[in-house]
Amino acid sequence: MNKKILGIIGGGQLGMFTCIAAKKIGLKTVVFSTERQFSAKKFCDEYVISEFVDQNNSNKFFDLADFFTIETENIPLDFLKKIKKKLLPSLNIIEIAQNRLKEKKYLNALPGVKTVKYFEINNYYDLENKAEKLNFNCILKTQEFGYDGKGQFVINSKNLDRFKEMNLNKFILEEKINFKCEISVIVVGNSKQQVYYPPVENIHSHSILRESIFPARISSLIKNKALKCAEIISRDFELNGVLAIEMFVTNDNQILINEMAPRPHNSGHWSIDSCKFSQFDNLVSVLAEEKINQPEPSKNCKMINIIGDDYFKFNQISSKYKAYDYFKKEVRPSRKMGHYVVFD
Ligand code: ADP
Ligand code: MG
Question: Is residue 115 packed enough to be buried (19+ CB in 10 Å), middle (13-18) or exposed (0-12)?
């Protein structure tokens, strides 16, 4: 095997689990973190703490690794462009997944793939106009840098006025749909293989993922439709790495793609304990140019996030279940602090 050094951009829990998987196959890791205290700190071989705009520190990081991956898509493109040739997945897929407008345009152009109805918004006039077109039943979202429901506003005819004073440059407005359930599919691919994790069902509250249930409680018809969509997207991208695809299952059993993340995903954490090969194991296999393995799930389970104050019960939870601490410096409301897995 090619034992080069892996650079991971971002040191949160996804970076942490990537470091742990890398260590298992003898791959050294160096993490770039914008925070002093970060989840991956204890698990990487080296790290650079810096802002993205700091050229000296960025160059130092670029020199420390032979190839790079990301644990969040919210990274300035200028930073990523400097390592374009050594970056997995490709800059193209990250650029699209970073921006909800580009993402929606891209997805709807693929045959057999659809999203909710949406409009580009750049000012209050656009918002008034398009909200009416969507019967005042819609969600306003920033095009970039949103996660866990941040940068999102539910719009109706009564609260529209409140957005008059807001800078509405670079937003999109989506139809707010009533769905049957939310699911996600994770694909790991390289030029030779595409491996799919079976769909899980995702339960959100206040736009934050609370639970992922494996397997999703959907018919085999819907499961196959979801896997087909994932295949169309990942093949079109010529995916090299991990791609998580969030989907809505509509009341008339259609699949609408919600969003994509070209990195390991919270809804794939169940695979650490229930699969022979987790999303992180397979990601590092791609990076190390090794064979991607079928996940081989063994047990039905539920992955539950430990969010905000729930963290104060961590010891209690970990005495009963397989629990993971993300070693975050401080507890904040709505912050993902850890997760645990409950088997059927
Ligand atoms: P984030 O990047 O914050 O995860 P999402 O677009 O996935 O942003 O939105 C978070 C959650 O909000 C979704 O998982 C879903 O529960 C709800 N949501 C988002 N968009 C819509 C929509 N158009 N219709 C209904 N619910 C939505
Ligand atoms: Mg989401």
Answer: buried
User: Which of 34, 52, 43, 48 has the alpha carbon at shortest distance from 15?
Assistant: 43
202 Cα nearest atom in ligand 1: 14
In the structure, which protein residues have their CB atom closer than 6 angstroms to any atom of ligand 1?
116, 139, 146-149, 174-177, 182, 204, 207, 246, 258-259
E-state strands within 233-330:
241-250, 255-261, 301-307, 322-325
Strand-strand pairing, 152-155 and 5-9: unpaired
Nearest Cα residue to atom 14 of ligand 1:
207
> Strand locations in 81-227, DSSP E?
118-121, 138-142, 152-155, 171-175, 179-189, 194-205, 208-214
HSE toward the beta carbon, residue 278, CA cutoff 13 A: 21
If one residue of 139, 179, 201 were mutated to test the ligand 1 pocket, choosing by the most ligand atoms within 8 A of its CB, it would be: 139
Residue 319 CA to ligand 2 centre (angstroms): 30
Residue pLDDT tens, the chain, 344 long:
446 899 999 999 999 999 999 999 999 999 999 999 999 999 999 999 999 999 999 999 999 999 999 999 999 999 999 999 999 999 999 999 999 999 999 999 999 999 999 999 999 999 999 999 999 999 999 999 988 889 999 999 999 999 999 999 999 999 999 999 999 999 999 999 999 999 999 999 999 999 999 999 999 999 999 999 999 999 999 999 999 999 999 999 999 999 999 999 999 999 999 999 999 999 999 999 999 999 999 999 999 999 999 999 999 999 999 999 999 999 999 999 999 999 98
Instruction: With H, G, I as helix, E, B as strand and everything else as coil, classify residue 34.
Output: coil
Judge whether 311 and 337 are in contact, CB under 8 Å.
yes
Task: Tell me which ligand sits closest to the C-alpha of residue 208.
Answer: 1
Rounded distance from Cα 256 to ligand 1 centre (Å): 12
Task: Assess contact for 130 and 101: CB atoms under 8 A.
Answer: no
